[in-house]
């Protein structure tokens, strides 16, 4: 009985010790799991914070990019306007130089020949059958209105302050006298210039009604030399 009692006590001690060991192991595992879960949560929180900051930075950079692109578009538009204005200015200067006769001009156009009437009624005044400066002015004004870039009379270049006067049977252009027939050449769009002169009841019809012989031709190329001022013939 003494021996059996001793074994029973040892068994009880072993049972209690086993229970304590098991409980300690489970508690340790539970605490370890809690620590791991805590570290995982902390890491996920830090990653979420970084992601939020990256998203905010991305939005800010995108906004800055949009603003920069808008600024670039505005600068490009301004440069385009400046380039367009500069180009227009150069074109205007070139037109003025052409009208002033300062540059050589070459291009297609038309040629209008005005001649005195070949037949004069005996009872009429001969002045009613010859070309006057008014007839020449009509043709020149119509050509300018139709977009002529440069005009010459009998090869003499006209400029912005040219004057035409009738001196008896001849016409004076900037002090140079020319006799009929008068060949008025104009550089520009041949189709437009020709149509402007030959329109019904237009300049050609008016001149014919005033006993002037009119001949209009389209030209593939006309060349006008620069105007160097009035010189003595």
TrEMBL record:
Pfam families: DUF881. Residues 44-92 form a coiled coil. Keywords: Coiled coil. The keyword Coiled coil applies. The keyword Coiled coil applies. It comes from the Bacteria. InterPro entries: DUF881. Belongs to the UPF0749 family. This is DUF881 domain-containing protein. It comes from Calidifontibacillus erzurumensis. The lineage of its organism: Bacteria, Bacillati, Bacillota, Bacilli, Bacillales.
């Amino acid at each position: 009985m003494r021996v059996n009692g001793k074994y029973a006590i040892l068994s009880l001690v072993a049972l209690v010790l086993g229970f304590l060991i098991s409980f300690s192991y489970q508690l340790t595992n539970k605490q370890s799991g809690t620590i791991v879960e805590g570290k995982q949560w902390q890491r996920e929180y830090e990653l979420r914070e970084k992601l939020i900051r990256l998203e905010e930075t991305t939005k800010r950079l995108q906004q800055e990019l949009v603003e920069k692109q808008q600024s670039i578009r505005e600068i490009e538009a301004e440069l385009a306007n400046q380039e367009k204005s500069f180009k227009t200015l150069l074109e205007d200067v070139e037109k003025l130089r052409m009208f002033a006769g300062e540059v050589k001009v070459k291009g297609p156009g038309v040629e209008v020949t005005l001649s005195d009437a070949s037949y004069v009624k005996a009872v009429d005044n001969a002045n009613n059958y010859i070309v006057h400066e008014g007839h020449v002015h009509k043709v020149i004004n119509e050509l300018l209105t139709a977009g002529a870039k440069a005009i010459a009379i009998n090869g003499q270049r006209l400029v912005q302050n040219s004057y035409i006067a009738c001196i008896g049977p001849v016409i004076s252009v900037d002090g140079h006298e020319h006799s009929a027939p008068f060949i008025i050449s104009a550089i520009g769009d041949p189709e437009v210039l020709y149509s402007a002169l030959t329109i019904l009841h237009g300049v050609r019809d008016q001149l014919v009604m005033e006993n002037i012989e009119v001949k209009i031709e389209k030209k593939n190329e006309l060349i006008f030399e620069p105007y160097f001022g009035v010189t003595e013939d």
